[in-house]
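Hi all, a correction to my earlier message: I attached the wrong file for Tc1-like transposase DDE domain-containing protein. Here's the right sequence:
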Amino acid sequence: MRAGRHKDPDREPRPRRRATYTRPHGVRHLFAAYDLTKNQLYGHIKKTKNRSKFLEFCRYLRSLHPLDMRITIVCDNYSPHLTTKRCQRVATWAAANNVEIAYTPTNSSWLNRIEAQFTALRYFALGGTDHASHKDQGSMIRRYIICGTSTPLSAYTTMCAGGYSRTGSVADLVTQGPLDRFG
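and the right structure:
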């Protein structure tokens, strides 16, 4: 048998995923927050990632809690999150809205609890997929945010649009493909 041939000559070749070294339609950015008390992930997908979009997402997070409750938003040192001498919008908004913006030290994003959620999102919702459009990819991310963080990974339950539900262990979750998880 020659190299590169499958032992079953009648088998259809596996479809190849598209190369991603060019992105003619741009990329999308996920603004996400993880509420530790509710074990809930929140996320917005945007075309651009700048200070205005960050403040828009912060306003959304603020709207989820009463104004007399102080909330803390932990951020990495990505420039739209920072208050600079030139732009005080983030600090001004935070002070006026009973919000503390806490920054992780440089090269220490692992201290931010949301990083584990991003790893799970990449593994369970995006790994091994090839979305035809940004809309399809956004739909998969939103389904993960809605279904994937509702229970701990040790005993998960997934409920999807058709009313289908499945319960199992982490071992079941790992052995299924990313699309199998959603029925």
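Sorry for the mix-up. The radius of gyration is 20 Å.
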